[in-house]
Structures are given as C-alpha cells and as structure tokens.
DNA sequence: ATGAAAGCGCTAACAA
DNA sequence: TTGTTAGCGCTTTCAT
C-alpha cells in the first residue's frame, strides 16, 4: 500500500502549518482567500484524500447513518431505502445498511455493530419478533438519535414515522362493506408488529361501526410471502358461509391470493372482492387490478432521514424526543378487484 | 456526550497494560487465558465499546465494503443487495450503500465518497451513461479491489460477476422462433450497458442461425420502466407486418407491455408471444404468466461479495485480477406467455 | 490570519 | 506472556 498524503505533506509543500491546512480544507472562515487557494491547489496536485478515521476519531462523529430493515429485498423497503439514500447523500451522510431477517437476535447484533461503527444516528424498522427495545439502550445512553419507521415499537418515547394503519384498514373494510361484502377475511402478519396490530383494530372498528359482529375465524395471521395465496385460499374455502371479501396486508400476498382464487375458477370481485396494501407495482399488473392502500414508501424514507439529520446538530435532542410520531398520509385506491356493486 | 471507556480504563482497572488489553480484546493468542477472562469481564463491566475509528486509523482498514448500484428500488438490485448483506455480515463487514441514479456524475461522486470513506473493497453495477472507469483509478492505484456485477465495463482488467446475457437472449429468441414467431421485436435498455449490448448480440445471432434477416426496426432501445408498455405497444402496432414476438429486457416492462396489449384486445401468446427477463415475482403474477430468463440475483450478490472478501486478505490481488469474469448460470423459463405452438 | 502542541483511542514494533 | 513507546492523521484549544 502506497504512502498516504497527509495535511503535513501539504503543509510542507506550501510552507504553512498543518493547522492552517486543516482549516483551509474544512472551509474555516479565518483563512485568507489566497492561502486557501494555494492549499487547495497543492492538495489537488499531491492527490490528497482526507482520512475520515482520523477526522472521526478526533471529532467523534462519523457522518454516517445506520439503517436496519427486516428484509432488503421487499418492494416496500427498497423504496424506503431509496428515499433515505437520496436525502442522506444530499447531506453528506453515508448509509450503512443491514437486515435483521425478521430475527430479534440478528437485530440485536446489527444494532451493536451499528453502535460500534459509531453511526451518528440510527433508523430502524423492527423485526417481527422484537418486543422490547433494550438493545437500543446504548444509543439512548449516549444520546445518539434513534428513529423508527413503519414498524415502530409500542409504548416508548422514540420518534416514529408511520402511516395511520388503523384508519387505512378501517377505510378498506368500510369500502368492502359498502360493496356488499358480508363476510370479510383479514389476512395479516405477525400481530406483535404495531403495523398489523393497528390494522386489526381498524378492521374491528369498521365492522363494529357497520353493525357487523367480529369473528376471530375471519382473521388469519401469517407469514406474508409470495406463496401465501394457496394456503389462505384453501383455508377460506373451508369457511361456511364462504367469505366474499378479502383484506390482505400486502400486495404481493394479495396478488398471490388472487392467482389462487382464479385458478379455482372463483371470480374476483364477483365472488370474492380483494383489497391489498402498499400500492406496489404488482397491484397494477394483475387482473383485475388490485384495490389497495397507497403507502408513500419513498416519501417515508425521505421524511425519516430528514428528521433524523435535522436533529443531529442539536446537542439536546429535545425536539426529536418530543415529536413522538410523524404520520404520513395514505389512502385507499379503489380498483377493479373490489368493485362488486355492479354485481349485487 | 458521555466520556468514552477506553482500553486504558480497562488496563487501569485490571492492573495491566493497554497493549495486553488490546490483545485480549482482539483474541490475540499470546494472552493468558485467565488474563483474557479478567480483561473481558472488566470490559463488560465498564461498558467498553471499541472505537473503530482509532482502530481503523491505526490498522488502515475499515471493515466496510462499498456498494454502488444504479437504483436501490428495483426488484433485481434489492435482491442482489440482500445476498451481499448476508455474506458481508457473516464476515464482519459493514455495507455502505449508495445509488448512482443512472448518472455518471453521481457515480463519480459516490465513488469518491466511498474512497474517502476508506472502504476495504468496492462492488459496482454501473450507471447507464458510464463509458469509462477513470473514476475508479484511485482505487486501482491504492490496490483496493473493485469488483463489478451485472453491469460491468467493457474492455478492462476488472473482475466482473455476470450472467451470459448473449446466450440468455439467444435462447429466448430461438424459443420464440420455434414457437412460430416470424417477426420478433426486442426491447432493451441503454446499449452503452454491456448487459443490453450483449443481449442484442444474442438476438442477432439467434436470428442469423435460424435464417432470419436482422431488421433494425425491430430493436427498440428505451428506458425500461413501468410505463414502457403503452409507448412500446403503440410503436409495434404501427409496424407492418405486425410483430408476433416480443422480447423485453425486464419483467416489469414485459408485464407492462402485456397489460397494454391486453387492453387493446390483442391476445398473448396467440397474437403476440412475450418473453421477459429476470424471473421477478411479477412474471408469475400476471396473466398469462410470463416466460422469462431466470436471473440468480440473490446468488449474484452472494458470489460477488464472497469473491471480494476472499481477496481482501491477499496483499497482491493477483487472483482477483486474473479471474476476469465469473459467469453465473441463468436459464430460460417457459410459461404461457410464449406457448404459441398450440395455436399455429 | 496563522501556528504550536496536545491528544482522540488504538495497535504494532521492539524489548523484556 | 506482558509492557514500553511511538505514531496512525486529524482537529482544537490557546497563543501570537
């Protein structure tokens, strides 16, 4: 490995002190314009590259933000990440990204690595099995801001960027009821996750408000993956009376249910109406197009990152502590998969 | 911010030198078992966290890998990243990720940031407009390994992890010909990118080998996005004779073409057969299911990361330099969107 | 506007 | 097996 060019080399080259070079390089105001120019020129000439380790060691800041997501390869998360990256890079922050694979154990390990990596702030969408936030304690102790997004822990003082999941599913349920559905099955993920717990609430409230009786048989909590469709459809076809409405907590799974239904000759929305969640691309590509909840994922990434970065400067993170929740707008998008009115 | 606990604190606590503490902490063999235990206990007790800046400054290694992709929010890239993250985290490496947004300018900027961040290695899938690799020169000079994946630069000595794009499209084209297609339109991305240039070759070769005449009108180079379908379908419907085969370089765009065709009452595969690329989820969710090329994206991430990390130890990167290309297996998956035989 | 000196926390020679 | 010493490259008082 070649020798590093340091500010000492530049200093020697231009006949000034390392201090002045350092100041010039970091745009300190108290450096004469000509001096700065001379130094910058020399730096370029010598091929100088600042050593961020030395700088970070000294300044105790890394100019990097950690992000922990459950899974990297999901349309939702990758879109959030894209939004985050945009803002971070605009502000000169690096993104250190890791995935918890829905495992609390790995989330803890990731968190520790992030802590050791001295990220200036942490953005987390928690794993399904995470039911406490002890492992972030080291961040809290050192007052390194931690901000949750989408999947936020319950009952705590952390800021979270979320959508109103309860309202979203309330609207979806009410919509299905209005379309004449009599038995609506709700398929969702791990109920330990706020996202799904809230949606279940919205579902219940909507039933209640429309004079329906809640029936636990109509709620299926499951791993939301691509193969969900077959499993779910088998299950719901055994129910009596047969459900005529299906509320699935993500579009991929909803699409998969749609496939499984069509395969059996069950017509959507005539026999069963479907509403998905997220407004992923796939919701516009299947037939019939899926009604869904528009989830502003890219925007969520931007907002979360912006809020985190805005508060990095503050010595005391009061504002971030006090802004407990930022709720983004989401809305029901009605497409053909749930338009039953014409058939009834 | 609270005071840091350092190895000096531990040393003082257990009555040993910082050196021994450092050795114990990094599992150096020449430390007595009891000593190590005492040190580890004290470290835990005091809440010690190693300072990677100091360590990296001293060791001149960051234990982090940079990844630059064109876009974070693509099913393909996020799957590659997931594979990379898995391997990296297993080996104790952090992932610093940024996106070039298909802009050479941003790619250069990202590259410089990665260089300044002192990543131990760099993984790149290049932007569409990148036609040289000068901006990686600083990495080459310092012998920091750079490995390209999927979109690799032409004519250079860098290692790349790729699939055989030429063969893949050759097979797809041959398949369409066998299914009786007489006029096959090939829709692909920016031809400056090896991926698409190679595919065009495969298309031409296949035509040639089957006695077809290549016609430039049948090649459409375009931005491959979700809205592609309408644009493409309008174009091809103007062609005379009307094409009966469509080869689209990613599944999202292929699905979008499929939608646009169906909207106009054109039947797939009877009137026009379609083959996509990537084997994204969406290819299995549209109707008819899309024939496509299975692209082992997750695996590509794993392989690329493994190869990079394997060669980080080596002082001289000879092996990496000499292994010029790693080609992963890809294969044609035939589904309903291209099964025309029964109609002819 | 510029400089001298100290030190961030760690590790690697070298010595014992 | 353990310790001494020096220094990685930078920034930040404090002085001039």
Automatic annotation (TrEMBL), chains A, B:
Keywords: DNA-binding, Transcription, Transcription regulation. One of its GO terms (molecular function) is DNA binding. It comes from the Bacteria. InterPro entries: HTH_LacI, LacI/GalR-like_sensor, Lambda_DNA-bd_dom_sf, Peripla_BP_I. Signal peptide: none annotated. The keyword Zinc does not apply. Pfam families: LacI, Peripla_BP_3. The keyword Transcription regulation applies. Residues 5-59 form the HTH lacI-type domain. This is LacI family DNA-binding transcriptional regulator.
């Amino acid at each position: 490995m070649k020798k590093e060019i340091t500010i000492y080399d530049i200093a020697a080259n231009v006949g000034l002190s390392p201090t002045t070079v350092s100041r010039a390089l970091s745009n300190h105001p108290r450096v004469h314009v000509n001096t700065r120019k001379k130094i910058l020129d020399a730096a370029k000439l010598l091929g100088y590259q600042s050593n961020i380790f030395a700088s970070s060691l000294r300044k105790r800041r890394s100019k990097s933000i950690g992000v922990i997501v459950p899974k990297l390869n999901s349309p939702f998360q990758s879109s959030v990440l894209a939004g985050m990256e945009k803002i971070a890079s605009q502000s000169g922050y690096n993104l250190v990204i890791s995935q918890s694979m829905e495992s609390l154990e790995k989330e803890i390990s990731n968190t520790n690595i992030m802590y050791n990596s001295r990220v200036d702030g942490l953005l987390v969408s928690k794993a399904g099995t995470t039911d406490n936030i002890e492992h972030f304690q080291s961040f809290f102790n050192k007052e390194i801001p931690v901000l949750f997004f989408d999947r936020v822990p319950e009952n705590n003082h952390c800021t979270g960027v979320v959508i109103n999941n309860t309202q979203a599913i309330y609207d979806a349920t009410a919509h299905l009821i209005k379309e004449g559905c009599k038995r609506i099955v709700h398929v969702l993920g791990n109920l330990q996750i706020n996202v799904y717990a809230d949606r279940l609430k919205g579902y219940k409230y909507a039933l209640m408000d429309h004079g329906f009786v809640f029936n636990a048989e109509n709620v299926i909590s499951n791993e939301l993956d691509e193969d969900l469709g077959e499993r779910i459809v088998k299950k719901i076809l055994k129910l009596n009376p047969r459900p005529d409405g299906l509320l699935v907590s993500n579009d991929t799974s909803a699409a998969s249910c749609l496939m499984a239904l069509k395969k059996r000759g069950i017509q959507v929305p005539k026999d069963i109406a479907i509403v998905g969640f997220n407004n992923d691309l796939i919701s516009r590509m299947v037939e019939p197009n899926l009604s869904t909840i528009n989830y502003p994922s890219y925007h969520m990434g931007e907002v979360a990152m912006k809020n985190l970065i805005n508060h990095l400067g503050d010595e005391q993170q009061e504002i971030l502590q006090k802004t407990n929740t930022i709720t983004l707008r989401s809305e029901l998008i009605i497409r053909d998969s749930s338009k039953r009115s014409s058939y009834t």
